[in-house]
Amino acid sequence: MALLMTLPACGFQSSAVSAPDAPTGLMDSSSSAGLDAPAIEATPADAVVSDSDSAAPQDASALCFGTYPTVCFASISDVPTAAITLNATIDTDSTTDCDQHNDQVAAYCVVAGAGIVSRTGSTTRATGSKPLVLLSTTTVDLAGTIDVSSKRVAGAPQNGAGVGAAIASCTAGAIAATSNSGGYGGSFGGKGGKGQRQDVLQSQAPPTAPPPIDVPPTLRAGCPGSNGSTNASVSPGAGGAGGGAVSVIASKINLSGTVDASGAGGGGGPTEKAGGGGGGSGGMIVLDAPAIVTSGLFALFANGGGGGQGGAHNAQAPGQDGLESTAPAAPGLGGLGPTLGGAGGAGSAGPSKNGSDASQANLGGDSGGGAGGGGAGFIRAPGVTINVAPPPTN
Description:
single chain; 394 residues; mainly beta; 6-stranded parallel sheet
């Protein structure tokens, strides 16, 4: 069954609507409804002016779109009139990839068109320091995958769109890792898991993440997990980056694909006396449209990454990196290799917003502690109640 969420239309401003409750999980809502609509709807008549009208005062409703964020073009001639199909990659710091004629240039990468298409089977990977805004003056047909998640590939970070800025709430009130302890998971919409204390610190509080925050006033990426700790001349496991951020603005969104803004797994402790790094929190996904039509096996998820395993003293072996989420109900697993380093906690998934704590078992010798899993991010998708994690905040 296709789900149609219609909201009052006013400059594409969205507000929450009620919809039947449905269990969290991957459910098929496919039907012909919503699929027979044209891929690109006609550009509204008030988005075009004649030469004789060009000197007249311009109606802000013809220049401004969306609410989270609101994007205003400099003039009516800057409002896009051609439909676009998304590329495989978007660099949010690129003046070529991002529209340069709007009032949000400094804060966001706005990719704009009179219709935006993400084709079935395609993946658009967005990276860079600015969050991504996909803005259509008509319809967005999202059948492929939009990936703004952060990842740890072969030990190296690959950050999603908008990741990198230092944010005070990501560390406020946290208890940092010391000695050989593992780091805490990043907190955002949900709280990150605790890191594991090294055995000589059992009387002390474990590395603890800051509390989660309320829905942020602006579109932004998630929080990183903290680095592990070490009292040797080695580097501890690095914390995973938080998930990136994306807002999709349109008059109507046809959603049958996937949007992933999950956090990266934390790095394993590279050798003995090195704690694992905490998993990054999930990022942020916003669907900002008066109407959202879902079909097929669509999915929206901003889950936390798994915490890294501590390095092992017995073989001076590295701990295993934490993993990333691959679906709304699939957590990023904590590092758990065959060595004796402390195990990392899993990231958030499904209806649970909090990352899991690392194992708190008493460690012997010089093993590093495991790290906590990342907490959930935020999703704003009015009326969407299935195939989404964490549960939307609208």
